[in-house]
Amino acid sequence: MRRIDLDVGGRAHLAVSVPLVRGNVVQAEGTTGQGVTVAIVDSGIAGSHADFAGKIIDEQCFCEDASGYGCCPNGMTSQSGAGAARDDNGHGTNVAGIVASKGTVSAKGMAPNARIVAVRVLEADGGFNSTSQVVSGLDWLATYHPETQVVNMSLGTNARFSGTCDNATSWTEAFAAAIDSLRASGTLSTVSAGNESDLQAIAVPACISNAIAVGAVYKANVGPYDHGWAGCSDATTAANKVVCFSNSSTALDLLAPGSPIISSGMGGGTSTYSGTSQAAPHVAGTVALLAQAVPSATPDQIEQALASTGVAVTDHRNGRQTPRIDAKAALDALKGSSPTGTSLWIPVASHDGGANNSQWRTDLGMLNTGAAQSNVDLRLYTTSGVKTKSTFVPASTQSIVEDVVGQIGHTGSGVLEVRFSQPLRVTSRTFNLVSATAACTPRGTFGQSYEAYRVQDGLSAGQSAYLAGLREYSAYRTNIGLANFGPGQASVTVYLYNGSGSLLTSYSVTLNPGDWKQENKPFYAKGGQTNMTRGYAKVTVSSGSGVVAVGSVIDNLTNDPTTVLMLR
Amino acid sequence: MTLRLRFTRLLPVLTLGVLWATPARPAAIGPGVAEAIAGQGHARVVVMLHVPEGAAASRASAMDAVASAQAQVLGGLTTSDLQLATHWRVVPGFGGRLTARASRSWASTRS
Description:
Chain A is an alpha+beta fold. Helix content of chain A is 17%, strand content 38%.
């Protein structure tokens, strides 16, 4: 014997969202979860509901009340077969509908043609008295339904843990053993993070390292929303805004729509719930879509596709950034047919003229150290829209795309997104072309390097960074550029200081997604300064995410630029 | 209208560390177990077992190892020691109600 702990109880995690995560786009392409088995471990399912007609392939119950008496439909602590997972609460029916409703009564679920195995582990009041019965459900699935591609658990303990919790207690060890076993045989587990507004800890089994822990965002602007049952409210709502009740920690993996969600209900109708309980099945349904489309995909590959392609959402309560699932992007990435697996962003690339008769160009470097070809989409964000060019980098090679903006067919400057199907190391050099008639170094170049960033490397709301060593007088000029790699609009304020630390002035900039905005000679243009020999700037983001600030100090005699990276 | 579920039972979740040992290997007994037994005569627990390393080479061998570990422990207990609620096939452990008698017995084996 290794470990003994008191068993504990928990509860279900309470809750149009499918289009928000582009499940409808994937369905329209013919991927509907056909042939995929999804297990719903919950309060059961309304088996006679038209939304589930012909879909339920097995039912099981493990349920024991606080006195040790059975609470399965037959009054025992376990039950098998048709009717065993009868839903006496409604929660499980709503959750199952989100995953796999056929759309007969409620709207179509994420994977409307998926099969369902319903496992009841919750009492009629939505609680469970011991983790043992939930583990029993997982153990039963691993034993009797190894074909299951994803298990959804919209439930959790009252106890919460910061970080992962695999070895915290005997019962977290039991959960970890079950989830690990399922994963080893190809079954992913999606789990709700819980609804206690905890910003540092999530429930069990969401905190198990091999579980996919899911938090909730609003599906749309639904106006002010009071979640009285959870003891919180949001004065304003918007698509992708994290809901006030959603638990968060370093173990949180994904976000999905969780409020308010209309789905299948007991009695043959619909029901509306809000909660991370409703977010997790959106992910489970997406897993079902991916499993059908790419049957050879491993759980690791599916989870990676979901995490790497999701829309980056910053939790306004704690600044933590988490991907909100995008079924279409995940599917494309998993198929490898489209280079949307991962993106890196260059703040600015140019094919443009500048001050002092400068002519700026950008070369893009892409190093592929992997064993597979990486397919690449280059996406230049311009004031007239996104301009694209596709290319590829063979395995174990490096490509340099000279004058990348010119090759894309644009004159000007803008943010350059590099999307790739296999990992790449991305570099860039932006340089001034010395004219052929220049007295010195004719046809030469003076250049600078702009780093490639991930979205999460950028600044989010409430965060600041500095640009140091700025010089703006007769010998040098300064530019300050701001780029927005995030999914939403960003508001940024730039504070300009002299070397003595005195604030000279400030200015604000609004950046739409993909925007690059540059202020030339900001100390003069914004502050009237003509002799700034040792200035610096503080850049503060008040809303949005994925904001990067970059400065340049340029020699006025040679147009030789020096890159000033933001310091956090 | 947003519905919500009721939850009416709050159960103990404390996890203090108390070491307890069989003659073979030490086991950790979490917080609240002794108190629950003292107060109610039993404690609802989850017990996790050692399984040999490498036993999970295949699903079948892993299940055999789990069954063997369970049999070894459960075989030495009576219903006066433990009211077994559930045991698993792939998870090396079981759940049940631990009694005062087992508590006294195990206490005597503490190293």
